[in-house]
């Protein structure tokens, strides 16, 4: 079973504009509400891939109830700690039709109390099964305990859980010490982890080699539209995505992670998994939403993904 964690989920209100111009009145063309939060994005995309998942997290107030309902309607099993006090986040994603720029304005969200955090740990401990897959994604720096991902890994250490890590900042630095099965930093985050700027592909390749001490089985470094550099054991791969008409890049990384989780659950070989994850990510980039993709389009894009051994 695949499990995801989103400690601070949200509703993403997508605001479509012709073009955003500062210091004037901007007219809205349309709006649409979708799920926000990296782990919840992963879970909803997994449903499209045919993989059921549980989504763990915290929800507050009427927005929190809506988040739980949206997950359930999307075929995801919500395992949330709910609180009446406070209100879960609403983020705003400004999508410009003329330029295809997408700007996310994110709220901070409420903080759970100590009793709610303990109830969350108890729920995870009782629910996650032996040998399950677990996605830890998103920035936990705003959480009361910024090292909650480490606590979760330690809590489930005896269950043989495979951890897929997509974190940044202190969460990445701390969690990678626990040797997750897969880590998915982008180039900037990898540079932060190692304390140096990464400019060229050669810089990234040397940096990947320097992560060997963390004993991460798959290190997948995202490089945006250029694709990814992936190391698994002694194998180093450059994965180049297909050329697509990018409408909105928000959520592409979450879909890639969902693709890797789905592929692992299905027992795919590494190159097949990367081809699939890259194709679904590219299909997401063509979507006007921050979550979901067209499965038929993703299948058509798979043959256009190129993988080169370095």
Describe it:
The protein is globular. It has ten helices and 14 strands. 43% of the residues are buried. It has a ten-stranded mixed sheet, with helices on both faces. A four-stranded mixed sheet has the order 3-2-6-7. The model has no long low-confidence stretch (mean pLDDT 94). It has 310 residues and is an alpha/beta fold. The longest helix is centred in the last third of the chain and has 16 residues, at 270-285. Helices cover 35% and strands 26% of the residues.
**Low-confidence runs of at least 5 consecutive residues:** none
* Gyration radius, rounded: 19 Å
Please, what is the average pLDDT?
Answer: 94
Strand order of the largest sheet: 5-4-1-8-9-10-11-12-13-14
Helix content: 25-40%
Largest sheet: 10 strands, mixed
Helices and strands in order, then pairings?
Blueprint: E1 2-6, E2 10-17, E3 28-36, H1 38-49, E4 53-60, H2 61-73, E5 77-83, E6 89-96, E7 102-105, H3 114-127, E8 133-137, H4 148-155, E9 162-166, H5 169-175, E10 182-183, H6 187-194, H7 201-210, E11 218-222, E12 228-232, E13 235-240, H8 252-266, H9 270-285, H10 295-301, E14 306-309
Parallel strand pairs: 1-4, 1-8, 2-6, 4-5, 8-9, 9-10, 10-11
Antiparallel strand pairs: 2-3, 6-7, 11-12, 12-13, 13-14
Helix pairs in contact: 1-8, 6-7, 8-9, 9-10
